[in-house]
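Sorry to interrupt, but I need a hand with the structure work. Could you write out one complete protein record for me, on any chain you like? Could you add the entry underneath, on a fresh line?
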Amino acid sequence: MSARACGADALLLERPVPIDRLPGFAVGHVSVQDLGAQRAAHLLELAPGQRVLDACAAPGGKSAHILELAEVALTALDIDAVRAARISPNLVRLGLRADVRVGDAVQSSQWWNGEPFDRILADVPCSASGIARRHPDIKWLRREQDLPAFATRQLAIITELWRLLAAGGKLLYATCSIFAEENERVVDSFIGVEPLARRLALRDGQPAQWPPSAEHDGFYYALIEKQV
């Protein structure tokens, strides 16, 4: 199959094919993941032995990438039981293991055991405006008034997850949105009220906001450290 290197870990096929035609897919040699989504695992600054939470994990692509990059103890959480059920089969195919749980990120008392996490990925629910190139129906399904509701939910999630982060730990806020209301404004609001929150530069040197392109979806990332 004709392909070219794209990003740190990816090959971009010149022509798309069904996943069952990808050599080695069934036995875990490859996975399919958008290039924008692949930034997440690298931006977390992982190290062996860390406790890591993927807080909105289904169907498990980012969880798998995290486990491929470092030997960490990963908790993969999702509020939707049906979607969460897709995480374990994806990890099994790749020979990986995580603690998969069903729960609401803003109700941590229902699923958290009290041990702080060194890294948290908060890939929060959003308008999905960054993936409209693949799902053009989003342009008709979303309304302007949806954005404040998403922003309220997003801020509630990272505010709750912040309590679960160890001192010196890092939280990566992520959306597949291109709207500032869900991205910069949420991060600014959070940092404005959390005295120990410090925003860090992204290690790949790329901007926080990636607009959609022919190679990837639109994604946004902000890395926030809990100062000691």
Remarks:
- The beta strands are 3-6, 10-13, 51-54, 73-78, 99-102, 117-123, 165-175, 197-200, 209-210, 219-226.
- Residues 120 and 151 are 19 Å apart (CA to CA).
- The chain is about 25% helix and 25% strand.
- The chain has a mean pLDDT of 95.
